[in-house]
Amino acid sequence: MRTACAALLLSLALPALAAEPPAYGPELEGFDYPHPVKRFAFDSQGEKLQMAYMDVQPSTPNGHTLVLLHGKNFCGATWEGSIQALTQAGYRVVVPDQVGFCKSSKPQRYQFSFQQLAANTHALLASLKLEKVTLMGHSMGGMLASRYALQYPQQVEQLVLVNPIGLEDWKAKGVPWRSIDAWYQRELKTSSEAIRNYQKSTYYAGQWRPEFDKWVEMQAGMYRGKGREAVAWDSALTYDMIYTQPVVHEFDKLQMPVLLLIGQTDNTAPGKDAAPEALRGQLGNYTVLGQQAAERIPDARLVTFADLGHSPQIQAPEVFHKALLEGLKAR
């Protein structure tokens, strides 16, 4: 009887003992990265800023460096599996958090542009004395990597685009403009549930696994903690950057080999929810967009993953990294 009562009391106490969801600071304070985080301090637009980054050395170097650029709803930490696979293959790997994101500064009066973020990244690489690198960009990082390659073509030996957004011009297709103030109010409502539901339907086509929750809470935690307003404001500014600064029309100017790694169940298109209903189904069709990008880029190689979505490097790391390493060696 005593044992049964004790078990009952314990079961009643469990909800109260359940861990509270994490609340991180505006620079993702409290969330651990897989490797030591360094800081690059620099001045930009009259502000003193810092870019957080990881610089991971291989045990047996092959003489090549990859720079990994995160997406909008991602951080440098989400590249942890790729960092491991690449360093084991001999690559030095540099992984920055862009200004406005994750562990980097959150300036509130900053003119965000892909050109500016590329210049910031270029300054970081110059400080590390890196003159020639391979760039790999995922999601929004694909737009940034493309802009960087156009801005600094002599520094990029190869470009890798992993389900990049911006393979279509949403403004030209008829997606309505949304003001920064409207984006800001929307971002203030960010929650774990909203992020998870969005990623389930958009990124993974309903194929969800518990380990993905780590990245959901990483993002949501910045909106729970002190400084959430600064996080939401910079997120709104960068949504406007994505909408107003397409790069797809310049793909024919890319001078280096480009490896496209495309999960085909992806249907990501920022602002899709604001589009007319008849248009929504036409947006984010990566089966078509990947092929179109490969046709526009002079020296492109397209590798597709039929059953994978927006983040193939997270969803099926062994399959993805096998294709990535083969693509890198092919050049």
UniProtKB/TrEMBL annotation:
Keywords: Hydrolase, Signal
One protein family per Pfam: Abhydrolase_1
Lineage: superkingdom: Bacteria
Domain AB hydrolase-1 positions: 65-317
Record-level Gene Ontology MF annotations: hydrolase activity
Residues of the signal peptide: 1-18
SUPFAM superfamilies recorded: alpha/beta-Hydrolases
Name recorded for this polypeptide: Hydrolase
